[in-house]
Amino acid sequence: MSVQIVIMLSTLLILPLLAGALTLEHIRNDRRTPSRVRRLTLSIPE
What is the residue range of 43's domain? Predict the structure, then answer.
C-alpha cells in the first residue's frame, strides 16, 4: 500500500509541473507563431 501512496503523491506533484511547463511553452510559441498555438488549443477538447 505504501508504494501506491508514494506513486499517487508523486503524480500529484508532477502533474502541476507538467501543466505549468506546457502553459509556458504555449506562451512562448504564442509570441513566435500564434497560428501553431491556435491549432494546438483547437485540437485539445474542452
Answer: 19-46
Q: Do 22 and 33 touch, CB atoms closer than 8 A?
A: no
Length of the chain: 46
CA distance 40 to 7: 29
The CA distance from 16 to 13, in Å, is 6
36, three cell numbers: 501553431
Number of structural domains found in the chain: 1
Instruction: State yes or no: pLDDT of 43 exceeds 70.
Output: no
Q: Please report, rounded to a whole number, the percentage of residues in the chain having pLDDT higher than 70.
A: 61
